[in-house]
């Protein structure tokens, strides 16, 4: 099991890899003020998605999301879904990107931007 820590002023994230499963835990505020460090390190994270067959985004400890954080999270979800498994021939049902513990702000913002149906595909 491999763990990586990235710490911003108020936003933290932890990536735990086990076999072809990646768990990404976000902690703190997913806001414009705190996105820079995560943005700067997204490429190594997304590169790991190429080897993964399942990616779980755990938002249980996200305390606040603004529109910039929502847009960035949507981009990360889209890119991780696109890169998932490197496009190999595995059955699509074995590949998935999932949001665990979605905060109510995420659902409110998805409604506001007309992305509810798109976001709901990631919710369990």
TrEMBL record:
Residue ranges annotated for the STAS domain, each copy included: 11-124
SUPFAM superfamilies according to UniProt: SpoIIaa-like
Top-level division of the source organism's lineage: Bacteria
A Pfam match: STAS_2
InterPro entries per UniProt: MlaB-like_STAS, MlaB_ABC_Transporter, STAS_dom, STAS_dom_sf
Name of protein: Phospholipid transport system transporter-binding protein
Source organism (scientific name): Volucribacter psittacicida
